[in-house]
Amino acid sequence: MHPSFQECIDEHGALLQQTNAARVAFFGRTDRPMPPKPGRFQVTGESVGMFQIVDLATGKTRAFREAYKSAHDLAMQFEEKANRLSGGAQ
After folding, report:
1. CA of residue 20 relative to chain centroid, distance
2. The whole model's pTM is what?
């Protein structure tokens, strides 16, 4: 691997460690537990007049909605379904 690429990877690793340390410190100050994992679906407004629901695990768009509230509600339904399926028996 080229030395400049390795340097960039090392720098990103250090930044991720600092970010995680800051996150742990924040949750320690607020007396709240850290979330176990981030959400799997994200609502983005990249399209004009449309909101996309993106699966962060695959990077693929799952659905489109015109209103943010309906996109958020659908993303929450996708999240619940993904948690239910990965959690074992229904």
Report:
1. 15
2. 0.57
**What is the spatial distance between Cα 90 and Cα 77, in angstroms, rounded to a whole number?**
15
Token output for 83? 């948690």
Give me the residue label for tokens 């407004």. Answer: 45
Nearest to 69 by CA among 88, 51, 49: 51
Average pLDDT over residues 25-47: 85
Which among 38, 61, 40 has a CA at the least distance from the CA of 50? 61
User: Please, are residues 90 and 84 in contact by the beta-carbon 8 Å criterion?
Assistant: yes
Do 31 and 41 lie in one domain? The reply is no
Tokens of 79: 């999240």
Domain ranges, residue 2 = 1-35
